[in-house]
Amino acid sequence: xxxxxxxxxxxxxxxxxxxxxxxxxxxxxxxxxxxxxxxxxxxxxxxxxxxxxxxxxxxxxxxxxxxxxxxxxxxxxxxxxxxxxxxxxxxxxxxxxxxxxxxxxxxxxxxxxxxxxxxxxxxxxxxxxxxxxxxxxxxxxxxxxxxxxxxxxxxxxxxxxxxxxxxxxxxxxxxxxxxxxxxxxxxxxxxxxxxxxxxxxxxxxxxxxxxxxxxxxxxxxxxxxxxxxxxxxxxxxxxxxxxxxxxxxxxxxxxxxxxxxxxxxxxxxxxxxxxxxxxxxxxxxxxxxxxxxxxxxxxxxxxxxxxxxxxxxxxxxxxxxxxxxxxxxxxxxxxxxxxxxxxxxxxxxxx
Amino acid sequence: xxxxxxxxxxxxxxxxxxxxxxxxxxxxxxxxxxxxxxxxxxxxxxxxxxxxxxxxxxxxxxxxxxxxxxxxxxxxxxxxxxxxxxxxxxxxxxxxxxxxxxxxxxxxxxxxxxxxxxxxxxxxxxxxxxxxxxxxxxxxxxxxxxxxxxxxxxxxxxxxxxxxxxxxxxxxxxxxxxxxxxxxxxxxxxxxxxxxxxxxxxxxxxxxxxxxxxxxxxxxxxxxxxxxxxxxxxxxxxxxxxxxxxxxxxxxxxxxxxxxxxxxxxxxxxxxxxxxxxxxxxxxxxxxxxxxxxxxxxxxxxxxxxxxxxxxxxxxxxxxxxxxx
Lengths: 351, 325
What we know:
Low-confidence stretches of chain A: 1-7
EC number (chain A): 7.4.2.10
Shape of chain A: globular
Region (Disordered) (chain A): 272-302
Oligomer: heterodimer
Family (chain A): Belongs to the ABC transporter superfamily. Glutathione importer (TC 3.A.1.5.11) family.
Number of domains of chain B: 2
Strand order of the largest sheet of chain B: 6-7-8-3-9-10-11
CATH topology of the largest domain in chain A: Rossmann fold
GO cellular component, one term (chain A): plasma membrane
Distance between the termini of chain A: 56 Å
Number of domains of chain A: 2
Domain ABC transporter (chain A): 19-272
């Protein structure tokens, strides 16, 4: 085993994506009936492919049930893939190191996660210092050094070690607990940190503190973030690129400015238009979308968004759209963005 | 603060303490609020600011450990003086409430139709047939698609957005004069949240209800409120019309809150934060509760006494010594 102290080298070079995912799929069977047969399947994640570049923050947005948290758990390998491949800095994840792969234990050391519920993700019986030092110890760091690293990290996230190190999770506020979770995620010196709704449970004034902290830590430790949130304003603030998910599929992906200024997928447009305006003079009168997201047990045929889409045409039910390249790494899975798709509005958009 | 001739709701010096054997929490410390008929008031505040406790006090929904003092008047009636029977007529009749989590507010073992019908039969002494007809009418009012079929649905069979609409239908069953809403859109997805907000605003205008809407989200307040009251440590620190308050808050706390809220065009800039955390409410505040976090604090004046509300322009008021008036 590699000792946790050694600096992990940038093996693939700067051009190699830190994490490349291809054809990721996860279906959950629903058992029922007399013999426990599979009666239905929740298609939580279906053919999701994207790459996380070195040093960037990739934001993932979508509504509940769109598969963003399942994607995070697949990325962390807390769930097994049904299909697809994951390549971490040029090495196949979960493969034998002799065939050029990276083992799961080593992978998880380099990829860490912060969850939404700051209380549930800490052991209530351990002082926070011990929670942070736990993983380095598991990975072979002697106790004293692990504790020292825990105290350094507490200081790095803005909690004075002398005051906070021996406290238990219930003695901290929500914002402080989330800082502890971030410190713990950094304890193994990871390269990629998955942040699953890290500020959603926090009050606004605390949210800003934690976001500033995340920006500082990224710079200081040279991290790469995958930031999952339903808050479009927060995602716009923190991300370099944004991925929009709908019903287990990638609807649109691209640089943050193209997504927010020139959204090509009607779902992205509706999502952006659904943000409450802070200005009472510019109130909306009509909701941009009607209805709730459909159930991922029986997703619609063809384009999954067509049941709520104002531009749906017969072609949308017949064929699933392919990802159309709009230039600059901006891809949208919509027939309207694809010139040859046969949708009546496709040609106009392409011209 | 602003006082129309006959307010629909009138709170004077409301205070709520939760007393247990080893500690007391001063959740609400002297709140004065008025609401006119047909007006939407948003109570804005972070967790622990006392906004939900204020709302529950209006309907006497607080547990026995709560010590409630002050005047609570709704539609000209003294809520504090009501006995159990009068309260039962009052709740659901004059005043109704919608909650954040419809799954816990609705009864899982009765259909949506039964739950709406029960309210109508209890308050309007309607027959079963009349109640069923009214239930269908209400589901259509809250824009539930295929309403007839949904009457027979149990809460778990509905999606989050439909469940929230069903709860609104239950609340509106007896045409309340005052609707209390406790973060009703917080648990919803963005595209569904805006639908429910627009629906609530439309129903409020149609039925001429007064609405007290509790939220922590400035954007939601901007979308629905006529007037906003910002609460901090159990006190209303600023109150005013939504446009003016969002455009330029008088009190440093809402100013900090607006600065700390992420919105478009802030990429790459450092977010302004409010340092520290809200005070513990084990003791009632003796000075300005925001003073320890305030960038403009002036030592003896701010901590010596709780600042009285000052009103530089009619209709606006803030509890800060720096505000003229």
